[in-house]
Design brief:
Layout (H helix, E strand, L loop, with lengths): L1 H5 L8 H9 L3 H4 L3 H27 L4 E2 L1 H12 L6 H13 L10 H4 L1 H10 L12 H4 L2 H8 L2 H21 L7 H25 L19 H6 L6 H6 L15 H11 L3 E2 L6 H4 L11 H7 L11
Antiparallel strand pairs: 1-2
Helix pairs in contact: 4-5, 4-6, 4-12, 5-10, 8-12, 11-12
Length: 311
């Protein structure tokens, strides 16, 4: 009974999430312009990079290295997508990889269905708290702990900046046909809601639809459509075969925009030591080696992520 209560959707605390979705209907009052749509697309993909390269590939899997300053930039950019704190996100994702599609997986569509894996687990009280034991390697940075606590700040500031940008265009470039209200709705509200469901679809739909190159223990699948929408995250079966890799598109034709961006940043010295999939993963598929248990990984190095490197 207690677990059922914890997993119940909290209607009051879910109001901001629901309100953002409802606010998308304001596009019928704000109108539309090429500039507003361009802002929507740009802010969708730049923040998606914060999620996939930052929250996921760096903070969850440590698939590359960077300095403390750019580490914070990635965390801030990811938080601006309004998907909770960076340490909260990374800890729950590490837990997911340890138990992917098993009974203890927090958002498996195989176990709990589409609705729960897509959004239900986020809106309930059960997973509110940050699992500090799973992110000890990053919990020592005070600025990340602060940002994890006040994770709404980057998103709210972004919304204010988008409105201000729209006001400036409305005032000084009226030929564009943009208003401050229109820019706020398209550039912030619509792009944020699209970001929600682009990210959530990886948890839900890429464990149901797509192809399986590698015989992983879970139901992860590769899906080109979601790879394009999420800057490479749709190569989900590849990722579950070798989570440590900064590259998720293992074949030349598997478009992975986040990896391309990280490669350019590595040329500039902003990031380095991008981990790559092993040679056999790029050639003929074979079964994955046995995964290290979470307990074994922590015993070997307590500062490593608790997710196994091969799973």
């Amino acid at each position: 009974m207690e677990q059922a209560e914890q997993e119940r959707i909290r209607k009051l605390r879910s109001l901001p999430f629901a309100a953002l979705h409802a606010a998308c209907l304001l596009v019928f009052w704000s109108g539309v312009s090429p500039a507003a749509v361009a802002a929507c697309i740009f802010l969708y993909y730049i923040r998606m990079f914060g999620i996939t390269a930052g929250y996921h590939r760096y903070f969850s899997h440590m698939s590359f290295k960077t300095g403390r300053a750019f580490q914070f930039v990635l965390a801030w950019l990811g938080a601006s997508s309004m998907q909770k704190g960076v340490l909260w996100w990374a800890a729950h994702h590490r837990h997911h990889h340890t138990y992917s599609d098993e009974e203890d997986d927090i958002h498996s569509p195989v176990r709990r269905g589409f609705w729960w894996s897509h959004v239900g687990w986020i809106l309930c009280a059960k997973y509110d708290e940050t699992r500090w034991d799973l992110v000890r390697n990053f919990a020592r940075y005070g600025e990340l702990v602060w940002l994890n606590k006040f994770h709404v700040v980057p998103g709210l500031l972004l919304g204010a900046k988008v409105y201000l940008f729209g006001w400036l265009l409305e005032r000084y470039a009226p030929a564009l046909g943009v208003t401050a209200f229109q820019m706020l709705i398209w550039g912030f509200v619509v792009s944020t809601v699209l970001l929600y469901h682009g990210t959530f679809a990886i948890n839900s739909l890429t464990h149901i639809f797509g192809s399986r190159r590698f015989p992983t223990p879970d139901n992860s699948r590769n899906n080109l459509l979601f790879a394009l929408l999420t800057m490479g995250e749709g190569w989900h079966n590849n990722h579950h075969y070798y989570p440590a890799s900064a590259r998720m598109g293992f074949r030349w034709w598997e478009v992975d925009l986040s990896h391309y961006a990280l490669t350019v940043l590595s040329w500039c010295g902003v990031v380095w030591d991008l981990k790559r999939p092993p040679g056999h993963a790029l050639g003929r598929p074979r079964a994955a080696p046995p995964a290290r248990s979470r307990q074994t990984a922590q015993q070997e190095n307590p500062n490593e992520p608790s997710t196994p490197l091969i799973s």
